[in-house]
Fold:
Amino acid sequence: MGHGHGHGHRADADRRYLAAALALLLAFMAVEVVIGIAANSIALISDAGHMLTDAGAIALALVAMRMAARPARGAYTFGWKRAEILSAAVNGLTFVALVAYFVYESVRRLIEPPEVAGALVFGTALAGIAVNAVAAWLIARADRSSLNVEGAFQHILNDLYAFVATAIAGAVVWLTGWGRADAIAALVVAALMAKAAYGLLRDAGRILFEAAPDGVNPAEVSAAITAHAGVTGVEDLHVWTVTSGFPALSAHVTVMPGGDCHQVRRELAELLHQRFHIDHTTLQVDHVPGTACRMITG
Structure:
C-alpha cells in the first residue's frame, strides 16, 4: 500500500516536471519563430521546428504516462503500460525524420549559403541554450529509467546541442561572413540526433519484440534455476520486459519425486529477485513423474 502511494507521488511529480518543461518550450518557440522570420534565418526557424518536436515528444510522454497508469482490466491484463514504449519509438522515428531533413538542408546550404543576420542568430541561440538547459534540468528530475521520459529528455538534450551549434554558427557568420558555418553546424546536430535515435529505437525494439532485459542472459537464468538443489530441469523459459523497469519471467520447472514444489518455487523466486532483479515470475513446478503442483505467481 505504501509503495503504491509513493509510486503515485513519483508519477505526479514526473508529470509536473514534464508539464513545466512543455510550457517553457512552447513560449520560447513562439518567440523564436518571430525572430527567425525577422532575421531571415532558416537556422532559427529550423531550431523552432526542432523545439516543436520537443514539445510534441513531451506532450506524447504525458499522454503515455496517463495511459500507463490505467489499471489492468478486461483483455488488457498488463494495463496500458507499453504505451510509454510506443511513445519512445515514436520519439526515435521523429529523430530519424529530423536527421534526414537536417542533412538535406545542410547540403543545400553548403552549395548555396543563405544570408543570415549573424548577430541576431547568435543572441537568440544563447537564449535558446538557457531555455533548453532549464527544460533539461526539469526533465532530468523525473524518472529517466522510463524510456518515455528518457525519450523526451533526449529530445531536449539534442535541441540544446542544436542551439550551441547555432550559436557558434551565428558568431562565425556575424564575425566573418562565412555562411557555410550554419550548414556545418546542422550536420553536427544531425549526427548527434542519429545517435540518440539509434539508442531509443534499439531499446524500444527490444521491449516490443520481447527480447530478454538488457543485462539478463536467458542461458544464465536457466543454469541458475537448474543448479538449485532438487530441480531436475527447466523448460519453456521466457524472459521479457513488459515496460521500462518491469522484467517478467515464466518457466516450467521439474523437481525430484517427493520434493516440496512450493518451497522450491519460493526459493527460485527469491533467487531470481536477488540475482537477476526479476520480481514478476510465473513458475509452474511439477514432480518428474508428473504429480503436478499448482501454478503460483509471485
In short: The chain has eight helices and four strands. The radius of gyration is 25 Å.
